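Service request form, structural biology core

Requester: graduate student, group of Dr. S.
Request type: structure prediction, single chain
Budget code: on file
Notes: please return the result as structure tokens.

Sequence provided:
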Amino acid sequence: MSIKKGLIKNTAFNLSGYIYLLFASFFSISILLQNLGRDTFGAFLLMASIVPLLSVLDIGISTAVVRKLSLPLTSDEERIKVWQSSFFIFIFEAIILSILAFVILIILGNTPALSVLDKDTFNISIITLSLTVFVNHINNHFLSLPQANQRFDIFNSKTLLVGSANTVFAALLSQVYPRIELILLLQLAFHIATTVYMSRYCYPFFPLHFWPKFHKDTTRELFDFGIKNFIATLAGQIEFQFSKYALGSMVSATAVAAYSIPQNIVVKGAGVVSQVAQAVFPLSASLLEKNRIGKLKKLIIGLETIVLLGGGLAILLTFVIGRQFLSWWLKDFVVVSLAYPILQVLSFYFVLASLTPIPTVLIQSIGKPQIPAFFAVLTTTIEIVTAIVLIPTLGVLGVAYAALISSCITVPLFLIVCWNVFQKEIKKTQSPPYTPSPATL
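Core staff response, request fulfilled:
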């Protein structure tokens, strides 16, 4: 299969699952908002955010595993060691993270946003979410294999199962039982179903070596690459989740809901680019060869051009039909009046944020994850400091301006650095290997 056909096929699988989830979220958010109420819905968003927040705390192992399994020179013996080491690390991390989730949620129980929940609801919810964090982390290990194999039909099974539970089935359940602890239990059940399905896919590849085992050298190699990438991933997740915790502790649960809705619209839009980048990552690692790297350069330039044009269209649509869309969708005047100005600001942020996923996976495939890590930390630091300064005067809108200001500073610099590094990699790949002259032998 050609490079373009393979990328189109894999991107189509990613986008089909993503678009399904996008539409499912579109309908479910308004239903959940109406059935749970503004305050309870805000509390639900705040508590449920612990799962994606802690899922990134894999020390970058999943990205390191995908890269190692995708490289053309990785032997069968190395693949076995990578698989077993990854499994060992993820089980250990899952135990630690489930305990951490429990502790964080206990602490958050004292914030204004969660004071709307009764004691029984809160207690059942934190136990359920702690178990969900554990199961979700194990699933992240299993998902590395289909991504490395470029089987994105299998990879997107989690989108179908867990995504449906988080959206369609959660909304349907809230119609009958509008209680967040029952919704969270439903989501846990679908996480477990994903584990069963993914293990059935992965087992035939390592029938004699499926279970976890510690390999010192392989584990060290995975950590050396992963921890650099982990910093970028963690910073990005902190940037996304910070707003909920800041607004929940400094403003109100309604403010959390008002900001989360336009934020989710922007994140879902930028997620389209991330789905493409997800397919580009293993492909770009396999194209770092003398005769193929030129095709990779053309591919990256073409994709970034499309992203920029799409971002301009998003800004136009936001200012032309944004308020009408939110009013029709949410049917809550208070939330809409707060959310629309935020959406206007975040539409510009969307353009900048959408330009970063593809250069990020390109630089990771080259083996320099420390570059996106540095800029991710810089962006998050600027955003948090700016938000803390702006929230007391601008309220919920201050978080949106903080996100935009930080991206305006760091994204252009990041793109320039990525391009220079890629150009050096092209020269390095295309230069002839050094052969000592007879006089030097």
